[in-house]
From TrEMBL:
The active site is at D156. GO terms for molecular function: catalytic activity, acting on RNA; pseudouridine synthase activity; RNA binding. Its EC number is 5.4.99.-. InterPro entries: PsdUridine_synth_cat_dom_sf, PsdUridine_synth_RluC/D, PsdUridine_synth_RsuA/RluA, RluA_PseudoU_synthase. PANTHER family: MITOCHONDRIAL RNA PSEUDOURIDINE SYNTHASE, RNA PSEUDOURIDYLATE SYNTHASE DOMAIN-CONTAINING PROTEIN 1. Responsible for synthesis of pseudouridine from uracil. Signal peptide: none annotated. It catalyses: a uridine in RNA = a pseudouridine in RNA. This is Pseudouridine synthase. Residues 103-263 form the Pseudouridine synthase RsuA/RluA-like domain. SUPFAM superfamilies: Pseudouridine synthase. Belongs to the pseudouridine synthase RluA family. GO terms for biological process: enzyme-directed rRNA pseudouridine synthesis.
């Protein structure tokens, strides 16, 4: 199978459809390959946005034939990659870790949010004037692309690392479905104050809003399910000791890793919301906090094959790891080995 973008259309060329046996219906084939729902596909057909090479009209039960192009029209180009109320610019360039016709992975620095919340009472919050969305939109514009900025997931303001974007309407729906099905794997690394016991394990504790502190979350029996897997990589002795921890998620609750680690008594270094005084003083001020989205991996439905993207550690990490003698536990360029054997 080949896929490519042509103007405002996604073009799919089936090449691995069995020629013997009953042919696959278009809706079943597109749904199975790209995780596109039948209701959505039916609406595309109704609006004439599905075209099959050599056919006047396409239907949900149109047979899929090897080599016969299927075009999903519209939903690729967009006049406003960023809404008109985004002021300012130019912005610092987006650091792009991966990009093709369908997806982009950007490296988020500390101190900015993934996307703006929008103006309140006609006034834009200063934090919304430079976001990762601004930088990705600028990247599209400088690349000559008319694209809407569609993030698939988010990171907290002070968390660094890889963020996945969809480059058209179809891949946005695909990656949203993959994320819900836990088929987009995200791995993190953190420095925490304290020593986790046991050294490796799973935290399966629900998370809800803290009714007493705005913007804060906590482990709560009435919260939403949240599951975090962790493994201690190395520990530096001290008062408190500092642990280097690798983590993966089964769920994606707001502040999940930070809440779970703080609940275990080992808050993330530099965490102003959940950290103790010791955890805050062990991390350089103004450098975010010590939580990094290090790898992101998925099976690519459009390009085929598996994609794994690694975000290099920010420079501040190297300095802190060196200070605590933990730099041998996390060598640049070899971060992915941390997660071998983890769920």
């Amino acid at each position: 199978m080949r896929t490519y973008v042509a103007g405002d259309a996604l073009v799919i060329v089936p090449e691995d459809v069995p020629e013997d046996g009953p042919p696959s219906a278009l809706a079943d084939w597109l749904g199975g390959r790209f995780w596109l729902g039948k209701v959505f596909l039916a609406e595309l057909v109704r609006r004439g946005r599905v075209r099959v090479q050599g056919m006047k009209d396409a239907h949900l039960d149109t047979p899929v034939v090897p080599g016969r192009r299927v075009s999903l029209c519209g939903g690729v180009e967009a006049d406003a990659g960023v809404p008109g109320w985004y002021p300012g610019g130019p912005w610092p360039p987006a650091r792009v870790l991966f990009e093709d016709d369908h997806a982009l992975v950007a490296d988020k620095p500390a101190g900015i949010i993934v996307h703006p919340g929008g103006p309140a009472d006609g006034v834009l919050h200063p934090a919304d004037r430079d976001t990762l969305a601004h930088r990705v939109a600028q990247h599209f514009a400088l690349s000559g692309l008319r694209r809407q900025v569609r993030h698939v997931h988010r990171l907290d303001r002070e968390t660094t690392g890889a963020v996945l974007y969809a480059k058209h309407e179809y891949s946005a729906r695909t990656f949203d479905a993959l994320l819900r099905a836990r088929r987009v794997k995200r791995s993190y690394v953190a420095l925490v104050a304290g020593r986790l016991a046991p050294a490796a394990g799973t935290v399966d504790l629900p998370i809800g809003r803290d009714r007493h502190v705005a913007g804060r979350f906590r482990v709560s029996a009435s919260g939403r399910p949240a599951v975090t897997h962790y493994r201690t990589v190395a520990v530096a002795p001290g008062n408190p000791p500092v642990s280097l921890v690798a983590l993966t998620l089964e769920t994606g609750r707001t502040h999940q890793i930070r809440v779970h680690l703080a609940h275990l008594g080992c808050p993330v270094l530099g965490d102003a919301l959940y950290g103790c005084a010791a955890a805050r003083r062990l991390w350089p001020p103004g450098a975010g906090h010590a939580l990094h989205a290090a790898t992101l991996s998925f099976d690519h439905p459009y390009a085929g094959g598996s994609v794994t993207v690694t975000s290099p550690l920010p420079d501040v990490w190297q300095d802190v790891l060196q200070r605590f003698g933990l730099h041998h536990g996390l060598l640049p360029g070899a971060q992915v080995t941390l997660w071998e054997g983890m769920t």
